[in-house]
Amino acid sequence: MQGKARFIFPFFLSGIMAFLMTGFVTWLNLGFPADFLKRWMVAWWIAWPLAYLSALIAAPFAQRATKFVISKAFSSEVDSGSREENAAKQGSKLEGPSA
């Protein structure tokens, strides 16, 4: 990502993830007490800035890791696809013209 998007995207993503995770962890720790919503919102308010900073720091590493995995995982598919195409082309050359 380039420009402002590299700051805006992690802002929203971290907010959504912090919202969901703090709600889940608050529920795990407390159940549903009368002040559940208040405690959840306090936890979210504290967690979101930390999640945003973490996302900004982790994003370059995650992008490099993603490129590495894609290059390794899908390079064999690209190679096998081209091998299959080459074999099909060679097979049609060997069969000769159809009458």
Which spans have pLDDT < 50 for at least 5 consecutive residues? none
Strand content: under 5%
- Total tally of structural domains: 1
Indicate the mean pLDDT.
Answer: 85
| Class based on secondary structure composition and strand pairing | mainly alpha
Helix content: over 70%
- Please give the count of helices: 3
Shape: elongated
Rg (C-alpha, Å): 25 Å
Question: Biggest β-sheet, characterized?
Answer: none
Multimer state: single chain
Distance between the termini: 56 Å
The count of strands amounts to: 0
* Element pattern in H and E: HHH
Question: Can you walk through the features of this model?
Answer:
The chain is an all-alpha fold and 99 residues long. The protein has one domain (5-93). Helix content is 86%, strand content 0%. It is built from three helices and no strands. Helix 1 crosses helix 2. The mean pLDDT is 85.
